[in-house]
Amino acid sequence: MARKRKSSPKRVHEPRIPVQCAPRFHPGFPLIPRELSLFTARLLDLLGLEDLRPEIRLVRDREMARLNREYLGICGPTNVLSFPLDDAGSGLVVLSMDAVLRESFLYGQPPVDQMTRLLAHALLHLAGLDHGPEMDLLTDRAVERCRAFQPAV
Q1: Alpha-carbon distances of 125 from 36, 77, 81, 98, 117, rounded to whole Å
Q2: Is the separation of the CB atoms in 52 and 93 below 8 Å?
Q3: What does DSSP say about strands 53-59 and 19-21: parallel, antiparallel, or unpaired?
Q4: Which of 3, 80, 124, 134 could form a disulfide with 118 if both were Cys (CB 3.0 to 4.6 A apart)?
């Protein structure tokens, strides 16, 4: 008698955002690159920016300081940089793992909230928003709404 093969549930493939990581991943960073890829896709949906096609690069302070000096002429690391690559929504977000952890401690908030804040801020820049009340409001809303699907960290 032939066995009936159980059908496996269909997997829903979520869009993945490319994430590159520094050779020395910070062990305290709230998400591993695969999780950050899915998290960013959901964040784009929450922000209404589904058409953006960002790439994320996680770096340490040394690399961030180099980029900050090279592109902005500013000495020292910053927390996040965004680089639009074209007019079609492609862009690069460079996020300092060290800054996320340092600032989360300084501001007394979970690292995943600070990561969300900086990531939302950079994505909104890629979408063409400048600093101001609208960006602040959208960033704060993103942090609040993302708490619903954050992994336990």
Answers
A1: 19, 19, 9, 21, 12
A2: no
A3: parallel
A4: 80
